[in-house]
């Protein structure tokens, strides 16, 4: 495979080496052509772009890679709890919005739904309304803020009822630190944390709330100390930490391979 030398033959690179004059994304172009949309202002086909859900051609495989890595990490952390641990990992699924979690998980004992809705609305008002949200906002701002809060989806929730502690867990798989989409992801995670954690803090002051972000770097790059600190906070057995990290890194590489394979297949298909 061409990626073997650490070089991904995205259009941006091909253009740099004078093999292509056009740096716009070939996959996005084809996807737009297929649905009869305009091919004006195509994004650049950079490594970061094709590794993001913002690429029309890659969003399915990139999203699948994200779920694949996170589902396994979450399950392995849950399975490696110390026997004394009173932490409970709430299993997130497609339906796990704050709304369903509050009903299914008996979170009424943390604080009432009404009081959380009230506190959350105050915080949601401080978070900007995005272009795609504008219509719903104009229809009814109060309901919009409430719904936006209850529709937020943490990647995971870990709770210790005895100690009155709750962490939301967020997983990110950035591919290029200089790309805009990473900033968008950071913003999303921060916005989510701000809304959920701050609302909970004011609604249930006797509890402790926090958010833990897990960031998978490029294939083979995980910040070890940071990762182990988080495992410790989550009561993972000391003897299992290395094994979890190793398996996690293998899955990151495996997922990266799958994503790259999908990219090359599509680029090859494009030439025909
Ligand atoms: Zn694209």
Query: H/E series, N to C?
Result: HHHHEHHHHEEHEHH
Distance N to C terminus: 19 Å
* Largest sheet: spatial strand order: 1-2-3-4
Gross morphology is flat
Bound molecules: zinc ion
Q: How would you sum up the major sheet?
A: 4 strands, mixed
- Any low-confidence stretches, pLDDT <50, length ≥5? 1-5
What is the alpha-carbon Rg in Å?
21 Å
Name its key features.
4-stranded mixed beta sheet; 272 residues; disordered N terminus; 9% strand; 51% helix
What would you note in describing this structure?
With 272 residues, the protein is of the alpha+beta class. It folds into 2 domains: 2-59 and 258-271, no CATH class; 73-254, no CATH class. Helices cover 51% and strands 9% of the residues. The chain contains 11 helices and 4 strands. The protein has helices at residues 11-16, 26-34, 47-50, 59-79, 98-104, 113-124, 134-139, 141-150, 180-203, 224-233, 241-271; strands spanning 88-90, 156-160, 165-172, 208-215. A 4-stranded mixed β-sheet has the order 1-2-3-4. It starts with 10 loop residues before the first helix and ends with a helix. The protein binds zinc ion. Zinc ion binds next to helix 2.
């Amino acid at each position: 495979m061409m990626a073997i030398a650490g070089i991904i033959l995205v259009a941006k690179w091909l253009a740099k080496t004078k093999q292509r004059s056009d740096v716009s994304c070939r996959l996005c172009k084809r996807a737009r052509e297929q649905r009869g949309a305009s091919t004006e202002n195509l994004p650049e086909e950079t490594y970061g772009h094709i590794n993001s859900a913002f690429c029309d051609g890659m969003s399915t495989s990139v999203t699948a890679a994200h779920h694949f890595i996170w589902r396994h990490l979450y399950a392995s952390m849950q399975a490696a709890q110390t026997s004394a641990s009173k932490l409970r990992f709430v299993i997130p699924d497609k339906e796990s919005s704050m709304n369903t979690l509050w009903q299914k998980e008996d979170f009424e004992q943390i604080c009432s739904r009404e009081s959380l809705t009230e506190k959350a609305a105050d915080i949601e008002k401080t978070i900007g309304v995005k272009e795609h949200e504008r219509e719903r906002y104009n229809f009814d701002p109060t309901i919009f803020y409430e719904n936006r809060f209850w529709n937020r989806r943490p990647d995971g929730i870990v709770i210790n009822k005895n100690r009155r502690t709750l962490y939301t867990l967020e997983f990110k798989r950035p591919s290029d630190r200089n790309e805009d989409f990473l900033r968008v992801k950071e913003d999303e995670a921060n916005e989510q944390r701000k809304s959920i954690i701050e609302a909970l803090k004011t609604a249930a002051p006797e509890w402790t709330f926090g958010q833990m972000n897990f960031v998978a770097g490029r294939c083979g790059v995980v910040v070890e100390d940071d990762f182990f600190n988080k495992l410790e906070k989550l009561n993972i057995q000391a003897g299992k930490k290395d094994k979890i990290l190793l398996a996690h890194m293998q899955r990151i590489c495996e997922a990266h391979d799958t994503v790259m394979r999908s990219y090359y297949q599509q680029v090859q298909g494009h030439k025909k």
